[in-house]
Amino acid sequence: MDMAEDNDSFGICFILPEGGKTAPCCPHGPTLLFEKVGKGGETGRRFYACSACRDRKDCSFFQWEDDKVSEARLLAREAENQSKRPVFSQQESWTRFRKFASLPLDEKKFCLDCQILLLPGEHAAHSSHRCTAITTAQLRKPSALLCPLDNKKKNAQYLFTERSSHFLLDTLAGQGYRKVLCVGTPRLQELIKLRNLEHKHEPMKTLLLDIDFRYAQFYSQDEFCHYNMFNHHFFGGEASSAVLQSFLRECDGEKVVMVADPPFGGLVKPLANTFSLISQTWRKLQSSDSSNADMPMIWIFPYFFEPRILECLPSLSMLDYQVDYDNHPLYKHGKTGRKQSPVRLFTNICPRDVVLPGEEGYRFCSVCQRYVSGLNKHCAKCNVCPSKDGREWNHCSTCEKCVKPSWKHCQTCGRCALPDHPCGQGQGKEGCFTCGSLKHKHKACPLKDSHRMSSYRSNAKSRGKNPSHHPLYKPKAKKKSGAARRAKKMAAQSV
Questions:
Q1: Starting at the edge strand that comes first in sequence, how are the strands of the sheet with 116-118 ordered?
Q2: CA 323, CA 357: separation in Å to the nearest integer?
């Protein structure tokens, strides 16, 4: 089942964790609670599903919230979770790394098939595998050594280009940050550590939180934590959580900033909840004058998620800077990709303080007090630089707003849309799928709770008559995933 946050005919709503309620665990840590809501406001049973995997092929965990799980099933589940944990603990991995680093160059081997550093006694066991020699320089760039994971819904590792990595680091250093919490940004961590070795700049501390446990081979316990950003889960338990708390404590004026680059198929609300929890932890560790402040952060995500991100974290604003990736066919800056990268920076750092490179065409808008792309022209009527996708947008006097250059005003629909759009369709989808109102979304619907209660009573009666009947989980043949639908919609809107 695809965990799309919004859908044309139904919605899968993420339910924030409630105090004192323990969620069941899958190999990726505590699961998340969801609820399916139909157009008429009908709500289905709540269920738990994997926090990191939105496709059941990748993690088959599924449990109705009101299910009573047998002891045998709990034991089998725990055994499965244990079987999928890393072979070596963080401490063991670091001990192995120190032994590996002290080996002569001709004994330093890396198994490409198993993706692990090999100690001399392990060479024979991997003799039939693809193995390669490793240099000291390669040890300092594990993101280039490890094969990127490519499941875009779960753990996609699209790695920053040198251009984007250096821009981020130069920006953070220029702002005076001396501690960078790297959430899913291994390449930024590498660059910081490499720059520290040059002794030309003020040293910076960094901590990588990542779901890819392979990085434990290259970093100490104070530099890496095996972590799931979708449920704020530390696989190393309290010891890893204590590492984060120690890192977030600002001592001797060492300002902390978080840079997060989640998989683009991930749900916004669980991510926003995690980043809020990290910010709350940071706030508790600071002096009293920071009791109401938010932790400085940069969330890297496609621009078309802006409404959802700002709904969850209103203090963030989107910048025009285009983030690009080495190993992504589309998300590249300028003319090197098929299209310009849609990936942007969402940050609570003051936009005018984030200086975008003029050599790439960015300029400062004195009215908006921020840097914008070269084609993002200020609109006197809207009083903003309106473009989101890097193209110059046009003002529609009828709609009283700026729209994409490929859009035209449709008199039938009373709004701007693509010239070949189906007239009379689409506008209703912008409203609430509980009551049909165009003035609010489902989340703010005053009838939401009454619909839920009546639905629960109805479902409870039907389950009493037929316990095996699960109407919401009936598979539909050849149904496109939410990611596929969004990709198709994005392609149409980008024309």
A1: 116-118, 109-111, 131-133
A2: 12
